[in-house]
Model the fold of this input.
Amino acid sequence: MRLRMLLAGLVSAGLAFAAAAQAPANPLVIKFSHVVANDTPKGKASDFFAKRAAELTKGRVKVEVYANSTLYKDKEEMEALQIGAVQMLAPSLAKFGPLGVREFEVFDLPFIFDNAEELHKVTGGPVGKQLFAKLETKGITGLAYWDNGFKSFSANKPLKTPDDFKGLKMRIQSSKVLESQMRAVGALPQVMAFSEVYQALQTGVVDGTENPHSNLYTQKMHEVQKHMTLTEHGYLGYAVITNKKFWDGLPADVRGQLEQAMKDATAYANKIAKEENDGALAQVKASGKTAIYTPTAAERLAIKKAMVKVHKEMESRIGKETIDTVYKATGFDPTKL
Ligand code: LMR
Done:
């Protein structure tokens, strides 16, 4: 028995030695920075990508994931990517407007998607490709679209009607569409980096916010928000992006392996996103700290009617053609509410 264990030990030590001997001493390092917790759809998918990249390149590439704004915050990370200080990011689609690619804000339009299937028709179709083509002019290559989910509103008072939002300071991402969405119900939008939201809610710098449940829960926002309304009024997802010069300069075989790793990570991300958000909502419920309200169909419609006017308002910014293409793909008709 002892001898068998000894032999097994020697064999596994030998295998580990062989693997270590094969792994290159100086792997190519990819810094992948993001702003959310590890335990979210984006956090898990970026870790998955790192693991898959190591497997497929046999250790030639090491992806270092920096979560929770530990390396860069929202605004800085885009600049860091462009100057090559990091090689990969996965910002939410709402964060591309300030880069000058305003068409991305079509994804922020309230109530434009009813579900993830409609959204995938757009990201997986010509619009998704055209948007990535626009990024190339900014020195950025788009690699994939990853889901998070649909947003809920939260505040320290119940939000059931458009009037309930009046005068509330609501934190938003840096998107003109989201700004206009909040103004449509009389709220006062405040652009703020994701890393600062918890404290701003805690200290009353802002009264409320919107986010998918996984973000709300993992940042502990539910501890400082007494009410949440499951409006699912808008979508929040990501574009995984890389520095174009870096990407184009990779050896072709490595680039191909990383593309495969990204394909696998994308399938994983989009598979777990809903489960993660449902799980987070269950945790918020279990905490007993936040009253969760599901609006009636009539209440949701009233909020929808108040906010959908933003689509028309934003035509000149996003482009009517882009909005119409999305309407066509999803079947959304703003005149039929
Ligand atoms: C936010 O700023 O609310 C989100 O974009 C954070 C994220 O990356 O999910």
